[in-house]
């Protein structure tokens, strides 16, 4: 991809510029959440598309807009549980103690 000045942009520059391109530490949940939020933002930003969805769902445009706003909070449901490194190390230590005894 090239920049407006005609120079080429590296992958690192693209990732720094656009949030949706992700990074190496991005989880599958975070990536899907970003993708869903971008989609809903596009629906909300384009009136014709919002109108199309409202007609397809037999709802008013205002109701459809509200539903899309609500879906942007947690579009993929609650985040998966994360384990701290301390918890992981503690579990391994307990497993080793159980195996020794």
From TrEMBL:
A Pfam short name: SF3b10
GO biological process terms on file: mRNA splicing, via spliceosome
Origin: domain of life: Eukaryota
Entry's Gene Ontology cellular component terms: precatalytic spliceosome; U2 snRNP
UniProt name for this protein: Splicing factor 3B subunit 5
């Amino acid at each position: 991809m090239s920049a407006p000045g005609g120079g080429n942009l590296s992958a690192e520059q693209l990732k720094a510029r656009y949030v949706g391109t992700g990074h190496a530490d991005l989880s599958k949940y975070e990536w899907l959440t970003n993708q869903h939020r971008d989609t809903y933002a596009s629906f909300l930003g384009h009136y014709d598309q919002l109108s199309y969805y409202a007609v397809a769902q037999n709802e008013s445009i205002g109701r459809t807009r509200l539903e899309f706003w609500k879906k942007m909070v947690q579009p993929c449901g609650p985040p998966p549980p994360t384990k701290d490194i301390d918890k992981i190390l503690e579990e391994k230590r307990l497993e080793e103690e159980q195996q020794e005894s």
